[in-house]
Amino acid sequence: MRRFFSPAQATHAPAQELHNGAFTGYAEKPSRAGAILDAIGGAEQPRDHGIAPIEAVHEAGYLAFLRDAAKLWQEAGRPGQAIPYAFPIVGRRPLALSRIDALLGRYSLDATTPLTRQTWAAGYASAQSALAATHALLGGERAAFALCRPPGHHAGRDYCGGYCHINVAAVAAQAARDAGCARVAVLDIDYHHGNGTQDIFWDRGDVFYVSVHADPATDYPFYWGHAEEVGEGDGQDATLNLPLPQGTRIDAFRAAQATALEAIARFGAELLVVSFGADTWEGDPISAFRLTTDDYPILARDIAKLGLPTAIVMEGGYAIDALGLNVAAFLSGFD
Hints:
By secondary structure, this protein is an alpha/beta fold. The chain is about 35% helix and about 15% strand. The longest helix has 20 residues, at about 120-140.
């Protein structure tokens, strides 16, 4: 299996985040990528496919914000990293905003996703890794892995959040559509629901989004991922959410994934994007499922049985000492 990663993805390194009412060390740190690379034996540098595939998913104003936010923050005389603190939850409408504080709230989901001068370069490179994996499939590979760091599935068309800035799974899925795949599926098996991916494809019938995740009644992102969310308009029934309770182990998770895979088969997808999060592991510091390292090859083999060209994009997983082993275990199921 070909694997892709750019060193530029390691440059985004915020010092801290706001978590549970206090500042703490940033969990989505560059050493996550290093641990994975060590375990999988390295990765190829992705080719630069340009900005157009990212613009096909994200709003132009939002991308400009990602490029400029840290500079504007510093020009305003603010120390450290840019973190939002005011959000337009009602009466949201297009406005010509210029103050960085206003822009941060306009384009952010939460206060846990700080921006630095390196955020844009790292996010752009992460998307290029996802695109490289997708193009490997289009070139005939059966499976490819994109070590996407920063991750992406919480980023919407015009907002960041949950450590995510560019939605790499959506970029990959849209690139496959633009290359001629009539129907594409995204299977999200991160602990947290991929609200951004769901939002991007919510009213479309050509990309099927299905997620197995922690019940948003108890876990982030809270406002998305409930079972009754099924899409609307052309996207009616092209979204499937399978929330599970904290403490879920392999049997229940595998059964939910089987339901997801059956739905993908019925949809008639020609290519599959897997948003894989190793934060489902039993020792993850910010999650509460109980999967073990030995469970990951089982889940991967079940996915591989679909027989679809499969791009695996890395999402969460924050137990760094075990992260590489867990990712390698999952990838082994596709060999």
